[in-house]
Design brief:
The protein is 68% helix and 1% strand. It is mainly α and 291 residues long. The protein has a single domain, classed as MetI-like (MetI-like fold). A hairpin with a 2-residue loop joins β1 and β2. The longest helix is centred in the first third of the chain and has 32 residues. The chain is globular and about 70 Å long. The two termini are 34 Å apart. The C terminus is likely disordered.
């Protein structure tokens, strides 16, 4: 058994200490936001650094959900995250599976065209003109269709499908399955790590959609959550969705509302991740190793 020298032990302890300090520095801002969101607005207005919630209250969250704009924005973001993720998974997985089969006609040409989209991007103005000509301005489809898939995601998922033996597909065809049935009944069940990984990526992207919403959504009634958060963070007024700082003698602290809104914006993805963790750990190296 190899003996660890004193210098190596000291080096390991210093590394652990530095990593612990770095973790603390990264976690404290999140902890502070949580503390402020649960702090009584009157206590927070007194100023000072909070290390725990003072006057523990749900007042900030109750106020946010009492406004018409905020719950609607959460519903829109949830719709985008669920419906958009399902469509993206269907499009990406079906295209990647087709390109992974060598018998597909025009396979090499299609791969070159997809690679071309990764090397040359049209830019903001052509994208906006396309969305406008498709009459999708102020439509939620403008936030879904441009993000359905990407060349990078297709190539990564194709690398995963390349590792699935052709014998499984041949056996399914012998049993009477067509190409769609092979993809649905054989390939997708074997690809849960990849599906979970890309599903998480797509869900986070749709939940956090911001730039496309700024470009294409002018009607505040259709704003997703991130656009509402942006408006709250930069708006110097004291209203959120029609509320005021003082209602019937109740103090509403704008800063506390912002902190509560940020927590609500982060919480759904944080709750979803543990259910996908076992698949995510397997699928995080999707397509990176082929053997």
């Amino acid at each position: 058994m190899t003996q660890t020298s004193l210098s190596e032990k000291l080096f390991d302890r210093i590394n652990l200490l530095l990593l612990a300090l770095l973790s603390l520095a990264m976690l404290f801002p999140i902890y502070y936001v949580v503390c402020v969101s649960f702090t009584d607005p009157a206590e927070h207005l007194k100023g000072g650094l909070l290390f725990y919630p003072k006057g523990l209250t749900l007042e900030n969250y109750q106020y946010l959900f009492s406004t018409p704009l905020f719950p609607r924005a959460i519903g829109i973001s949830a719709y985008l995250a669920v419906f958009g993720t399902l469509l993206s998974l269907i499009v990406t997985s079906s295209l990647a599976y087709s390109l992974s089969r060598k018998r597909m006609l025009g396979r090499k040409t299609m791969l070159r065209l997809i690679l071309l989209t990764m090397l040359f991007h049209p830019g903001i103005i052509p994208n906006y003109l396309l969305i406008r000509d498709l009459d999708l301005i102020n439509s939620l489809w403008a936030l879904i269709l441009p993000a359905l898939s990407s060349g990078w995601n297709v190539f990564l998922m194709k690398g995963f499908f390349d590792n699935i033996p052709d014998g499984l597909e041949e056996a399914a065809v012998i049993d009477g399955c067509n190409d769609i049935q092979v993809w649905w009944r054989i390939i997708l069940p074997l690809s849960l790590p990849a599906i979970a990984t890309f599903g998480l990526f797509f869900a986070v992207a749709y939940w956090n959609v911001f730039f496309n919403a700024v470009l294409y959504i002018n009607d505040f009634q259709k704003w997703p959550l991130q656009l509402v958060l942006r408006q709250m963070l930069i708006d110097s007024s004291t209203s959120v969705g029609g509320g005021t700082v003082l209602q019937e003698g109740q103090i509403i602290n704008t800063e506390s509302l912002k902190m509560a809104a940020v927590i609500i914006g982060c919480l759904p993805i944080m709750l979803v991740y543990p259910f996908l963790q076992k698949h995510f750990a397997k699928g995080v190296l999707v397509g990176s190793v082929k053997g």
